[in-house]
Design brief:
Number of helices: 16
Shape: elongated
Number of strands: 17
Number of domains: 2
Radius of gyration: 25 Å
Helix content: 25-40%
């Protein structure tokens, strides 16, 4: 886990530093200059604000001049000129509200310049503590941040403004931190099969879902659980769909259950599911379940009666109300599903992802995984873990079902729920990177990548 800091946590780290502020500025400005010299040729315009961020920018300009670069220092409301690269040292971590109209116009000119932009610490206009963008923000090609990455560089929408993030070690160490980024190294904490493993000890998963027209979802979940190294996977499905599962899902054990006239599982299936779950390490509920009063009531009954950890996804999240459970519960909504859980709009969730996922974790007393390129995993009374490996290839039907299966397998292996969810998101994201070519990728194309990710392929660091 890599610590990511809020603005206040960054200031605490600066206050704990034994040297002077001027010393930190010298190192910070030199680090930005080093990146510009290495990767961005030509004339440089350094846009400086009035605070410490502007001070870093002025040091950067001096170092660039000493290296022979043509440099113009542009005070906040000056003209950019004909620069080949722009250094954004305008606002830094101090932003709380939308930039003023004058500053917004400067940011708009930076974005309209059509040249690479290197942001100092945080792109101007991005809230360093939350990733929120309350107004206009710089669209950076790269960001040089100091000591530790900032929350706003890892959490959307801020992360989409940051470009490639470079962490410069200028002598700061976190005094404290609440949130973290999960790297690929977290997959080393997934238990592996040993000599004495049996299929039951390796992790047993029960998948509850399926309905006519939606049989693919629980199949993907079951296969993903196997690919994530679970030893035993079974599925509880409507009896009319059994033939589909028998022919399409060879390795899993199938349990046909009573259904209503439309082929959806009935609340009275709860007795059988609770009995089937006695040997399961985790129950994954929702993929392809369908939406009806009966499926809603079935989910409620299972949450009341199951003693095993539960992963809820897809249709199990529909019309879900807060519940009380002793056993761990993981919810895996996308932004639209989380919006329904909180009775807000998807736009509000997208704008305030960190706040939304934390609110939902508290409301439901559960681990809450908000899907996205910056998948966020929150737990009650705990910080948020960011899994930053998601790719555009995941924007296709069924990938969420795969994620559910991976998380379920990790929970069944005995991982702590928030860690299992974060590790599952990392494995899922790396698998999406391993899918080649990255066009026309199907959810089932991720399955081989899950194995490869767990074997150590495709690992890299989220920050340079």
């Amino acid at each position: 886990m890599i610590p990511i800091l809020t603005a206040d946590e960054t200031r605490l780290a600066e206050a704990a530093h034994e040297g002077s502020l001027e010393e930190l500025m010298e190192r910070a400005g030199a680090a930005v200059a080093e990146l510009v010299l290495e990767r961005f040729p030509g004339r440089v315009a350094v846009v400086c604000g009035g605070g410490n961020n502007g001070g870093d920018g002025r040091v950067c300009a001096r170092v660039l001049r000493e290296a022979g670069r043509e440099v113009t220092v542009v005070e906040a409301f000056g003209e950019l000129g004909g620069a080949d690269v722009i250094v954004d040292a305008l606002l830094g971590i101090g932003l709380h509200d939308a930039p003023s109209q004058d500053l917004a116009r400067v940011i708009e000119r930076v974005n309209a310049a059509g040249v690479p932009v290197v942001a100092v610490d945080v792109p101007s206009g991005v809230n360093a503590s939350t990733g929120e963008v309350p107004g206009v923000a710089v669209e950076a090609t790269a960001t040089v941040t100091f000591g530790s990455p900032k929350v706003g560089l890892a959490v959307a929408p801020g992360r989409f403004h940051a470009g490639r993030v470079h962490v410069a070690p200028i002598g700061l160490s976190p005094a404290s931190h609440e949130h973290s980024v999960a790297t690929a190294q977290v997959l080393q904490r997934v238990p592996v099969k040993g000599r004495e493993s049996t299929k039951y000890r390796a992790g047993t998963v029960l998948v509850v879902g399926g309905s006519p027209g939606l049989t693919g979802a629980p199949m993907l979940t079951a296969r993903a659980a196997f690919r994530a190294d679970a030893g035993y996977v079974s599925v509880a499905v409507p009896e009319s769909t059994l033939a589909v599962f028998e022919t399409g899902l060879l390795e899993a054990v199938k349990h046909p259950l009573p259904e209503d006239a439309s082929g959806r599982l009935l609340p009275r299936s709860a007795d059988a599911i609770v009995e089937l779950a006695e040997r399961a390490g985790v129950v994954a509920i929702g993929p392809g379940l369908g939406r009806s009063d009966g499926t809603r009531d079935l989910v409620r009954l299972l949450l009341e009666r199951l003693e095993q950890p539960v992963v809820l996804d897809a249709d199990a999240l529909w019309s879900l109300e807060p519940f009380q459970r002793r056993a761990p519960t993981i919810l895996t909504p996308h932004a639209g599903e989380l919006a329904r859980l909180l009775d807000v709009s998807s736009r509000e969730v997208d704008a305030r992802r960190l706040a939304a996922v934390r609110q939902a974790a508290q409301r439901f007393g559960s681990v809450m995984l908000l899907k996205g390129a910056d998948t966020l995993v929150a737990a009650p009374r705990a910080g948020v873990v960011v899994a930053p490996y998601g790719q555009p290839t995941l924007a296709t039907a069924g990938t969420g079902d795969v994620l559910t299966g991976v998380i379920a397998a990790f929970v069944a292996k005995g991982m702590e729920p928030q860690l299992a969810a974060a590790a599952g998101a990392v494995a899922h994201g790396i698998a999406s990177r391993l899918a080649e070519p990255p066009v026309g990728v199907l959810a089932s194309d991720l399955l081989p990548g899950i194995r490869r990710a767990l074997a150590g392929e495709g690992w890299d660091e989220p920050f340079e």
